[in-house]
Amino acid sequence: GNGGGLDSAEIKEIWDQFTQAEFLDDLDIATAATSDLPRTAGQRRWDALLKIFRTAAGAPADGKTPEPVLNLIMDVQTFEDVLTRDWNLLPQTEDRLFGQVPMEHRRSETSTGTLVDPQHALRSAIGGWVRRVVIDGAGNVIDYGRRRRLFTGAARDAVMLHSPRCTWIGCATSSNVCNADHTIDWQHGGTTTTTNGGPLCPRHDRTKNRGY
């Protein structure tokens, strides 16, 4: 063909990701039903190829992929506490370490009221956008800032380069669809450094967080 090696590698990587997603779907079904996988490897590859074309056909004409939106609301004191105490990304000043905002006035939740662990909210913010919103005592928005990225990608990239695959034993999910995960979780004394992290696929990230 006319494509170069890089094009071939990109096509293979896309196909591998879609095929892996089909495998994980089958694995979840088989695990729930304690039975064999419902499709053969060949059937999964065919379904993955079909999904690639359907996904491409459903993409917007301008080539921009729409991003999923999940609004997380966190007060600035909680936000800075996590950055300071657990992520070591802000100077550990007395004001930040011993903030005066009482816990009953703290917020870390979705816009629909679902409570979210501040650590998980910050993890989502790494790959998402942050917007500063100032609210007065009556709950009125008085300043609505522009959205921006929370962090540059250098620290996350360094963690993800530790392994080309999910670090869960036996998992072959490519690292480019994985989360940057703490090897030793922050609640167990783990720090947010490049030496205490690695790629973990979303499925095994959820499994680990459930304590398995």
Provide a descriptive summary of the structure in words.
The protein is an alpha+beta fold. The chain has 3 domains: 5-57, no CATH class; 72-149, no CATH class; 154-209, no CATH class. Helix content is 40%, strand content 12%. The protein has 7 helices and 8 strands. The chain has helices at residues 5-33, 41-57, 76-86, 94-97, 118-126, 154-160, 202-209, and strands spanning 72-74, 108-110, 129-130, 133-135, 141-144, 148-149, 179-182, 197-200. It has a two-stranded antiparallel ribbon. β4 and β5 (141-144) form a beta hairpin. α1 (5-33) packs across α2. It is globular. The protein starts with a helix and ends with a helix.
Number of helices: 7
* Cα separation of the termini: 47 Å
Shape: globular
How many domains make up the 3D coordinates? 3
Give a short summary of the structure:
The protein is of the alpha+beta class. 40% of the residues lie in helices and 12% in strands. It has seven helices and eight strands, in the order H-H-E-H-H-E-H-E-E-E-E-H-E-E-H.
